[in-house]
Amino acid sequence: MSKKPSDTELTPESFTGMTLTKPKHTAAGLPAVFSAVRHIMDEMDPLRATKVMFELNQMGGVDCPGCAWPDPKDHRSKLGEYCENGAKAIAEEATTKKLEPEFFAKNSVEELAAQSDFWIGKRGRIAQPMILDEGATHYRPIHWQDAFETIAKELNALPSPDHAVFYTSGRTSNEAAFLYQLFVRMYGTNNLPDCSNMCHESSGVALSETVGIGKGSVTLEDFYESEVVLVIGQNPGTNHPRMLNALKRANKNGAKIITINPLPETGLIRFKDPQSVGDVLGEGTALTDLFLQVRLNGDVPLMKAILKLLWDKEKSEPQSVFDKDFIESKTEGFTAFIDDLESKDLNELCEASGIAILQIEEAVNILASSKKIIACWAMGLTQHKNGVGNIQEVVNLLLAKGSIGKPGAGTCPVRGHSNVQGDRTMGIWEKPKDSFLDALESSFNFKAPRHHGLDVVDSIKKMHEQQGMVFFAMGGNFLSATPDTSYTAEALRNCILTVQVSTKLNRSHLVTGRRAIILPSLGRSDVDMQASGKQFVSVENSMGVVHSSQGRLKPISTHLLSEPAIVAGLAKATLKDKGNVEWHQVAENYDIIRNMIQATIPGFENYNERVRDPQGFVLPNGARNADFSSIGGKAKFTVNEIPDNKLKQGEFHMTTVRTHDQFNTTIYGLNDRYRGIFNERRVILMNEEDMKDQTLEKGDVVDLWNEHNGIKRCAPRFLVVPYSVLQKCTVTYFPETNVLVPIDSVADKSNTPTSKLVKITIKKVIV
Ligand code: SF4
């Protein structure tokens, strides 16, 4: 199968008028404030803006629907406890622009699909449930009950429950997620893929195997006690901006910050805290002490080079570098790990990492004398074929240094979406543990399916090969978030019905099954009024703290339902009398849902009481206390292969990143301010020597091609931008180049798409 070079319905290809400046050297500061204010004021009046912004991330207020970075325990600024991108996220959700049925009557699905993701997203909130009938060109309104019964009828007519797929995005609250997975399992399947499958699944697998829990071990307070913070394959300035405050405070307390990334990112160079007069008037805080510009997927050889040099020091001066007591009492596999290091050639490791030995020695000198190290990472480590190995190599470093299970040290996989970690805790997982299913069965009087379900990649494959499935998405923009866009579009088109629970219009509403339904839900900032009164929901942040979120704004339409109410309505229509859950009662009072969670999931004792503490509560975490009993009592050193990243003549590696004007698939604007790229998303960042070799100049138009297992894929029409990346490494924006990520190119063990390392060729287009 060869992809056609143009598929404008999936990724419209027109250029928008690029301008370039030099990349910035300082993140945040006043430009961030101006940007935040502009985005908010574009979407709502000052009164509404004031109401929501002063509640954002405050104790008992509205939890930011952006990333999952935790809120400080001690002090929250009354001026604003959020970042520029948190403001953009809430502006998108709390907008007063809305899409009434007239909009859908005027614009056909085909016409809407020809627009850019930016244009589509800026239309406003969806105001009523809508249906696209078989063969119809336009969506039309549908009553809620009719929508539930239509979906239930299709679900109950399937040959088996495994012919349905129930996706979850990471914004869904604990309460909605728990009800949703309960409904899906009562219906009869574990097909519960989620966005974790595409982001931190590799972290979950790697950490579960080595330290016994698939979550990070540190708290925010650990940053302030640390001696070294490693930031690897992560761009917090754009994707988790308040992390810069934590890095600043760590830095002020004396911690060294080592950043490892394929391109220099502004947020890691210098930070001006907009709430500090000294920062705003002065130069801000230099964050990075040492930047290692690694080759794409050069992290395993880099970590091995660091560890090998540390081991050399340890051998020459025993017990001066490694934590012998910790290694002996708390770990296993050390000998095999050392044997592997001894067998490696340092020069080859440096060459494979792309970093000179002198720079690696600088890192070693910092790490050798440090006893409290935090390692943070994100997709730059996880979305590789060897994503699990990348993380396990980082864990090797922490174990060798005894830097886990004590204050100021540990693992910190930084989660991208505000409740992605909580959804997994609530049971949104295609591979549930038997103990969890046992608890569900005994509490809710039904027989849970025991065979594992489908993750994201396997769901797409099954929908692609099997006609007539039902696809249901609780939030998100599945088509844009997933790899191999054309293939995934075909998979969705094969479905008999696609259903999206959404707040705003996105591309997944425009590439559909034979019939499609949009169920518009309340956002996190909306007042959620149910029969028993105003409700709040709860979420779990990246560091395992569970806390409440209470909507404050009047919903833009009276036709919206909360996510728990949507699940309850659908469950009632589908399950009839199966099980013992009074679906409508539980949706009327979320305390009942929290009691159900408490009865089923360890760590949620006295949930209703503890979640009302303004600071929330912390979930148990063995690794945080050096308790590795869940994996037999010892943390595990591992031996990880060095990936073979050879390229053929004319090939390049490509990685995908977000711009500063985007959060996951939501496009807030067309600028990437920190990188100096304005008003354009169809760009490819290249090393200048590579450009010369390819006779390319700044602004040239190129097509990007990928050939994997004999299948050719093309992302047409990108503008070349010279940038500081190593030779043979190129960078593009997600989701425009998802079309190049092959569906069968996935991480070992975690099945995560390899969006951070795709082989491409670049062909100049004569215009
Ligand atoms: S750091 Fe993340 S959670 Fe905090 S305000 Fe910014 S986007 Fe929201």
Describe what this molecule looks like in 3D:
With 767 residues, the protein is an alpha/beta fold. It has four domains: 19-25 and 647-764, Barwin-like endoglucanases, CATH 2.40.40; 27-92, no CATH class; 93-198 and 424-604, 3-Layer(aba) Sandwich (Rossmann fold); 204-413, Dimethylsulfoxide Reductase, domain 2, CATH 3.40.228.10. The chain is 35% helix and 17% strand. It has a six-stranded mixed β-sheet, sandwiched between helices. The longest helix has 18 residues, at 299-316. The relative contact order is 0.17. The structure holds iron/sulfur cluster (SF4). Iron/sulfur cluster (SF4) is lined by residues 57, 64, 66-67, 69, 82-83, 85-86, 89, 240-242.
Search tags:
single chain, 767 residues, alpha/beta, Barwin-like endoglucanases, Rossmann fold, 4 domains, six-stranded mixed β-sheet, six-stranded mixed β-barrel, 35% helix, 17% strand, disordered N terminus, binds iron/sulfur cluster
Strand content: 15-25%
Reported CATH architecture of the largest domain: 3-Layer(aba) Sandwich
**Alpha carbon gap, first and last residue:** 27 Å
Number of helix segments? 30
Largest beta-sheet details: 6 strands, mixed
**Count of DSSP E strands?**
33
Poorly predicted runs: 1-5
The CATH class of the largest domain, by name, is: Alpha Beta
Q: Which percent range fits the helix content?
A: 25-40%
Strand order, main sheet: write it out: 6-5-18-17-16-7
Radius of gyration over all CA atoms, rounded:
25 Å
- Secondary-structure class: alpha/beta
General form: globular
Give average pLDDT, whole number: 95
- Overall number of domains: 4
Ligands (ions, cofactors included): iron/sulfur cluster
CATH topology of the largest domain: Rossmann fold
